[in-house]
Specification:
heterodimer; A: mainly alpha; two-stranded antiparallel ribbon; about 75% helix; B: about 325 residues; mainly alpha
Chain lengths: ~300, ~325
C-alpha cells in the first residue's frame, strides 16, 4: 500500500514534469511540422537562467517568496528572446524544407546552444535549492513528499488548461488550428501563417524554458542536461501521437507511471522501461495513440 | 568495376597503410579511429541513399565495440577475425529483429525511433555493473591467427585490418550500389509506390539496407574498440549517432569514398578544435552543419563532382 502510494505520487510528479517539457515540443511540431531537437536546449537555457537568477536574488537578501517570480521570469525572458532569435534569424529561411532537413537544422541549433550555455555559465553545476526547501515537506501515509513536487503537478495542469483554452476558445487558437489543418489553405484565406509560426515557436520555446526553470530547484543544473531531455520528450510525444497536446498528456502519464513503477520495483530497468513502453505502443499503433493516420500522397 | 580503378584502389590502400604505419603513433591512432567511423558512416550513407536518416547507428557501433570488449576480456578470444565475425553476427541478428519494427517507418519517425533504440541499449549498459556501468571497461590487445603482436604492434595490426576492411567493404558497397537492389534504394527515396507497382518490395529493400548498415556500424565499432582499448556506453548515446550523421552530410552520398574521406577530415578537425577551443567544439560543428545544409547540400563530394564536370567539359 505504502509502495503503491509512493509509485502513484512519484509517477504523477514525473508525468507532470514530462508533460510540461513535451507540450512545447508537440505544439511546435503540430503547427510548424518541425521536430525541434533544440527544445532540450531551451529547457537547459531556462534551467540555467532561472538558477542563476535565483542565486543572485537570494544573495540580495530580498523577500524569499518572490524568488519564484525571479525563477520563472528569468527563464521566460531568456527562452522567448533566444526563441525569437532562432526563429527569425534562422528557421524562417528554412520553411518548406523536408522534415528530416529540419531535424538536422534544429540539431545544429542544439549543438550551438549547448556550447553557448557553457560559455555563458561555465561548466560548474548551479544550485537553486531555496525555492524547493522553502515550501517544506508533507507527511502523508507514513511517507514524506516535497511540496514543491505537488506545485509542479499544479503548474502542469495550469499549462495544460491554458493551452486547451487558448487553442479551443480563442480567436488566435482557431487561426492556429486552421494552420495545423492545412497550411496552404490557411495562407490563401488571408491568415498570416509566418506570424502564427513565430508565435507558436515562441510559446513552445517559452514552455520549454519554463520546464527547465521549474526543474532547476529540484536538482543540480549541469551541462548536457538538455540533451537527455529531448529524447525523453520525444518518447512521450510519439506515444500520444506527434502534434497532439492531449496525446502528450496521455504519453506523459503512461511514461511517468511506468518509470515510477520501475524505479520502485526494478530500479535497473529505469531508462529501459520508457523506451520499451514506446516500442510497445508503436508496434500496435504506429501513429501513436491519438494521431489520425494521414493518407500518403503519391 | 574497371580493372584500372580496382588496381588504383589497391595501390591507394597500400599507400594509406604504409603512410599509416610510418606516421607517429598518435596520428595513426586517429587515422584508425577515422577508418572505424568511416565504416559506420558508409552504412549510414547506404541508408541515406534510400532517403532514410538514422540517428541510431550508435546502437550497432556500441554493440560491435562491446562484443569485441567482452570477447577479449571474458572469453579470452583475441583473434581479430573471430571478433569481427562475432560482432557482425550479433549485430545482424539484432538488426534483423529491430528492423522488422523500424523499417515500416520513414523520415523523422525512422530517425527518431532508431535513436530511441540506441538509447535503450545506453540505458541498459549504464545500469550494468558487470560491464563497468558508465565507465565501461578495457579491451585486451588483439591477435591475428595465433600471432600476438603485443601492445606495441597491436595498434599497427588493427590499422592494417581497418584499411583492408575499408578498401574491401568500400568496393563491395560500390558493387552493391550499382546492383539492382542498390538502385532500388534510390527508387524508395524517389517514389515507393511506383517501386511496388514495378514489382519490387520496398520493405525488403529497406530491410536489407538496414541490416547491411548495422553490420558496417558493428565493424566500425569493433575497430574503434580494438584500437582505443576501451569501450563505454557513450558509444550508444545519441550524440555519437549525431556525429555520424554529421560526417555523412559532410561527405555527401554521391560516392562510397566520400564518407571515408569525410571521417578522416572530421577526426583531424576535431583533434585541432579540441586543442584550440575545447568549449566551442560543438558550436563549430553546429555552424558547420548549418553551412553544409545551406550551401553544400550534397556534401564535400560535390566539389569533386564539380571538378570532374569541368574536366569532362574541357575534353569534349
Amino acid at each position: 500500500m505504502k509502495q503503491l502510494i509512493a509509485i502513484l505520487v512519484d509517477g504523477s510528479v514525473y508525468a507532470s514534469w514530462l508533460f510540461i517539457i513535451s507540450a512545447g515540443l508537440t505544439l511546435i511540431y503540430g503547427v510548424m511540422r518541425i521536430l525541434n531537437m533544440s527544445h532540450g536546449s531551451f529547457y537547459a537555457l531556462g534551467a540555467y537562467s532561472g538558477a542563476a537568477m535565483v542565486g543572485w536574488y537570494f544573495s540580495t537578501g530580498s523577500v524569499p517568496w518572490f524568488s519564484f517570480v525571479a525563477l520563472i521570469g528569468a527563464a521566460l525572458v531568456a527562452g522567448i528572446t533566444v526563441g525569437l532569435l532562432v526563429e527569425r534569424g534562422l528557421l524562417r529561411f528554412m520553411y518548406g524544407r523536408d522534415e528530416v532537413v529540419m531535424i538536422l537544422v534544429t540539431y545544429a541549433v542544439l549543438l550551438i546552444m549547448e556550447d553557448a550555455i557553457k560559455l555563458i555559465w561555465g561548466v560548474e553545476p548551479y544550485f537553486a535549492y531555496q525555492p524547493y526547501t522553502m515550501l517544506g515537506r508533507t507527511k502523508f501515509a507514513g511517507l514524506s513528499f516535497a511540496n514543491y513536487d505537488f506545485m509542479l503537478i499544479g503548474v502542469s495542469i495550469l499549462i495544460g488548461l491554458a493551452l486547451w483554452y487558448g487553442l479551443n476558445r480563442t480567436r488566435n487558437g482557431k487561426l492556429l488550428r486552421v494552420v495545423i489543418h492545412d497550411r496552404e489553405i490557411a495562407g490563401a484565406l488571408g491568415i498570416n501563417v509566418s506570424r502564427i509560426f513565430t508565435i507558436t515557436f515562441l510559446i513552445g520555446a517559452g514552455i520549454g524554458a519554463l520546464a527547465g526553470a521549474l526543474t532547476a530547484p529540484g536538482l543540480s543544473v549541469v551541462p548536457g542536461m538538455g540533451i537527455e531531455v529531448i529524447v525523453l520528450a520525444f518518447a512521450v510525444v510519439v506515444i500520444g501521437g506527434l502534434g497532439s497536446i492531449s496525446g502528450a498528456l496521455v504519453g506523459a502519464l503512461i511514461v511517468g507511471m511506468a518509470r515510477a513503477t520501475a524505479v520502485h520495483l526494478y530500479p535497473e530497468v529505469e531508462l529501459f522501461v520508457i523506451y520499451a513502453v514506446m516500442g510497445l505502443v508503436l508496434a500496435f499503433r504506429p501513429q501513436g495513440l491519438f494521431a489520425v493516420a494521414n493518407a500518403r500522397k503519391i | 568495376m574497371k580493372t584500372k580503378s580496382l588496381a588504383l584502389l589497391f595501390i591507394l590502400g597500400l599507400a594509406i597503410l604504409a603512410g599509416g604505419l610510418l606516421l607517429p603513433q598518435w596520428m595513426s591512432y586517429l587515422f584508425t579511429i577515422a577508418m572505424g567511423k568511416g565504416l559506420v558512416v558508409l552504412g549510414l550513407v547506404l541508408l541515406m541513399r534510400a532517403g532514410l536518416v538514422s540517428f541510431g547507428q550508435g546502437l550497432y557501433y556500441c554493440v560491435g565495440a562491446y562484443v569485441a570488449g567482452m570477447l577479449t576480456q571474458f572469453a579470452e578470444v583475441t583473434d581479430i577475425l573471430l571478433i569481427l565475425l562475432a560482432s557482425i553476427s550479433v549485430s545482424v541478428v539484432i538488426a534483423a529483429i529491430i528492423g522488422l519494427l523500424l523499417c515500416r517507418y520513414r523520415e523523422i519517425f525512422f530517425a527518431m525511433f532508431s535513436m530511441a533504440f540506441s538509447m535503450i541499449l545506453y540505458g541498459l549498459l549504464v545500469r550494468m555493473q558487470v560491464l563497468g556501468s558508465t565507465d565501461g571497461f578495457n579491451v585486451a590487445n588483439p591477435s591475428l591467427l595465433g600471432w600476438a603482436p603485443g601492445p606495441e604492434g597491436a595498434s599497427d595490426l588493427v590499422l592494417a585490418v581497418a584499411v583492408f576492411l575499408v578498401v574491401s567493404l568500400g568496393i563491395l558497397a560500390w558493387r552493391y550500389l550499382n546492383s539492382l537492389s542498390g538502385y532500388a534504394g534510390e527508387a524508395v527515396r524517389e517514389n515507393e509506390i511506383r517501386l511496388e507497382y514495378l514489382g519490387g518490395s520496398v520493405f525488403k529493400v529497406v530491410y536489407v539496407k538496414y541490416i547491411i548498415a548495422a553490420a558496417l556500424a558493428a565493424i566500425g565499432g569493433t575497430v574503434t574498440a580494438l584500437v582505443s582499448g576501451h569501450v563505454d556506453p557513450e558509444m550508444a548515446y545519441w550524440t555519437t549517432s549525431g556525429e555520424f550523421v554529421f560526417i555523412a552530410l559532410m561527405g555527401g552520398t554521391a560516392h562510397v569514398a566520400a564518407p571515408i574521406i569525410a571521417a578522416v577530415l572530421f577526426e583531424a578537425l576535431r583533434t585541432y578544435a579540441f586543442a584550440v577551443a575545447p568549449y566551442t567544439w560543438q558550436m563549430i560543428l553546429g555552424f558547420a552543419l548549418l553551412a553544409i545544409i545551406l550551401f553544400m547540400p550534397s556534401g564535400l563530394w560535390s566539389l569533386v563532382e564539380r571538378f570532374q564536370n569541368k574536366k569532362a567539359r574541357k575534353t569534349t
